Amino acid sequence: MARYKRSSTAILAAGFVLLACVSLIGLDAWRTWQARAIEERDAGVSVTNMAKALAQHADDTFKEADTVLIGLLERISADGTGPAALERLHRLLVMRVKELPQLGGIFVYDQTGRWIVNSQPATDRSLNNADRDYFIYHRDHADAGPYVGVPVKSRSSGKWIATIARRINNADGSFGGVVLATIEMDYFQRFYASFNIGKSGAILLALNNGTMVFRRPLREDSIAKSIASASIYRDHASQHASGIALIKSSQDGVLRINGYTHLQTYPMFVAVALSRDEVLEEWRTDAYMHMAGVLMLVTCFAVVGQRMVRQIDKRAIAEDEANEARAQVEALNRTLERLAMQDGLTGLANRRHFDGALARELGRAMRKGESLSLIMIDVDHFKLYNDMYGHLSGDECLRKVGQSILAGERRPGDLAARYGGEEFAMILPNCDAAGALVVAEHIRQEVRRQAIPHAASPDGIVTISLGIGSCNQARRGATTSNLVAAADQALYRAKAGGRDRVEVQV
Description:
By secondary structure, the protein is an alpha+beta fold.
């Protein structure tokens, strides 16, 4: 009987050890696979962030060149193109090229395509650029905006250059020529060389129509060629503003993790690609070493029979990691909850936060018989502002207005929120119409004090109109809809009465 017990115990022990070893190997395989997924995910985040950084750099590069062209057009319009003016203009262009490292040259062409002044020390006047696509575009289009052309080989330097040009209009609006800034590819090559993309990685800058502007590693035969048939453009960049894609190259067969994003201002996009094999190289080494260690550990467990104690240790470690992960998830959830209640542009409370707060404050006011006021605020002539200054300036305008409104939060219970678009709102608990009027007038004056330029406004600056809805000694039956409607009616009267004013609806 004792022998049977010993045998049974041995079988049970062997079975337990076998089960424990198989479980350990399975868990390690899962952990290894999860680590691989994390490596790939982190690589996706890395290429996306790199693409965004390079897109911002390209945007800034062309924007600086474009700003020079805008100033050049203003100078030509003011001074003309007489000999003395051209001499001054030449000195200015030389100075601008020295100031901006990306600029290869700045040129002014007449309506026939011959240059009349440039930043070069000496250029053959017989050179004619009437056949360049930027010249043809501005000749055939009245568009006064910038045009980023197809990369070309400079006729003066023989180097590959990217171009940005603007149209010169005669006094009667007819075509008067082109102002051109060139950016040498060497500038992008030097900057892109500072990024670690591995041996098989790639960076490309291309026009939105699929024309290659620059590529690292540099291949001159690919510059100015179309990549419209390439998967990164055909299936991704032409369809989405930004994203991540796993693409196998049709040229070298390398599988790469690609991140891409479009420039905010100019019609181009940037893509960054890392070889997945190179991304996983460190993980692969770690996985092999870890696997060997696990196999050795399993062998030791089978021989020594101490699997239980070691498994308890591993379980304790795993539980600690799980608790840490849970704490991180809870912290992340709290952060997400806070962000979900905040407007990303202005930093004020968002509409969701506002709706909940208004309902709570109205309920409290009805229970206690207190007053409750609501101020609705609208930025005057904001659509005209956006049309004139652009959406980026419009966003900055809304941020400044939001800061002025935030200054009206003088009590712990006051809440300023972005209601939608160019509309804002402020909840004033335990505040009657007279008190709300003081707060509203303070906000209106604060916005005026900022003196944000607005050429399309009669006042020449950004102003706001405000409407106040107020429930004095709130009674049962009052609703948030009624209060919002009252404030809206007051706001309507303020705008109908000439804007830049405050109206009250009790």
